[in-house]
Write a structure and sequence with these properties.
about 160 residues, single chain, Glutaredoxin
Length: about 160
């Protein structure tokens, strides 16, 4: 699936919060939304990314933007992950194929082995719910700061 492109509307998609509550992406309409997909809780890169977004969460809030981190890990794993690292960035579980709909479920290769996995990617939607910017194959160091700068540029 090709996924979303800049200018596309925020889809009506449902995720699951660590406490089991339902999160509908459409509930974020009216303000910018930073949605980032990451491969797995409690791995080095994913932990650093979550810590970086947690450290800047007040700045995102001040800029009027919400942040939501999504993986295929279970709500229980998200609770453990958040507790272990004192993460405040909201985490969500994708049980409904949202990652696939975005085109972030991709073929990967590691040590000659091919498998399907999550493309570490970030999607920035503006206040009108339109996709404003996409970062694919994200390198974690400095990424949260880049995203915050892009949010501020939205005005």
């Amino acid at each position: 699936m090709a996924g979303l492109e800049v200018g596309d509307a925020l889809p009506d998609a449902v995720l699951t919060a660590p406490d089991g509550a339902t999160i509908n992406l459409r509930d974020y309409a009216g303000k910018p939304l930073v949605l980032y997909f990451y491969p797995k809780d409690d791995t080095a890169g994913c932990t650093r990314e979550a810590q970086d977004f947690t450290a800047l969460l007040a700045d995102f809030d001040k800029a009027g933007a919400a942040v939501l981190a999504v993986s295929k890990d279970t709500p229980a794993k998200h609770r453990k992950f958040a507790d272990k690292y004192a993460l405040t960035v909201p985490l969500a579980s994708d049980e409904a194929g949202v990652i696939e709909a975005f085109g972030a479920w991709v073929s990967k290769k590691l040590y000659g082995r091919e498998y399907m996995g999550i493309d570490r990617s970030t999607w920035l939607f503006d206040g009108s719910g339109k996709l404003a910017k996409v970062w694919r194959k994200v390198k974690v160091p400095g990424h949260a700061e880049q995203v915050l700068a892009a949010v501020r540029e939205l005005g």
